[in-house]
């Protein structure tokens, strides 16, 4: 999977899901660089992942995050 070391702008069209948190056992932060899916805050893969933890099926994001278009 493609990734970047620096967090993408939440107002951009880049997914930006944090794939890996930097720590002693790895090589640092990784953020997804796939394009956001239309109408979603993440790429389809990470939307499907995040939604598993939302019992009402709604992803809540901080202001400033935009959906894919
Ligand atoms: Zn993603």
Describe this structure in words.
The protein has 69 residues and is largely without helices or strands. The chain has one domain (1-56). 12% of the residues lie in helices and 12% in strands. The chain has one helix and three strands. It has a three-stranded antiparallel β-sheet with strand order 1-3-2, with no helix packed on it. Bound molecules: zinc ion. Zinc ion (ZN) is lined by residues 15, 17, 32, 34, 42-43, 45-46.
Could you name the key traits of this structure?
69 residues, 1 helix, binds zinc ion, single chain, 12% strand
Topology:
Layout (H helix, E strand, L loop, with lengths): L2 E2 L13 E3 L9 E3 L11 H8 L18
The protein binds zinc ion.
Task: Give the gist of this structure.
12% of the residues lie in helices and 12% in strands. The protein has 69 residues and is mostly loops. The chain has a 3-stranded antiparallel sheet with strand order 1-3-2, with no helix packed on it.
Distance between the termini: 22 Å
The spatial strand order of the largest sheet comes to: 1-3-2
The biggest sheet, with number of strands, parallel, antiparallel or mixed sense and barrel status, is:
3 strands, antiparallel
Task: Report the count of strand segments.
Answer: 3
Q: Which stretches are poorly predicted, pLDDT < 50 over at least 5 residues?
A: none
Overall shape = globular
Number of helices: 1
Roughly what fraction of the amino acids lie in strands? 5-15%
Please state the structural category: little secondary structure
Write the element-wise H/E pattern from the N-terminal end onward.
EEEH
Please compute the radius of gyration using only Cα atoms.
12 Å
Number of domains: 1
Small molecules in complex: zinc ion
The portion of residues assigned to helices is 10-25%
């Amino acid at each position: 999977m493609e990734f970047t070391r620096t967090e993408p702008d939440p107002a951009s069209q880049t997914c930006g899901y944090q794939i890996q948190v930097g720590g002693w056992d790895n090589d640092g932060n990784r953020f997804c660089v796939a394009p956001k899916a239309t109408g979603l805050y993440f790429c389809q893969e990470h939307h499907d992942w995040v939604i598993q933890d939302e019992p009402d099926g709604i992803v809540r994001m901080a202001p400033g995050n935009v959906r894919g278009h």
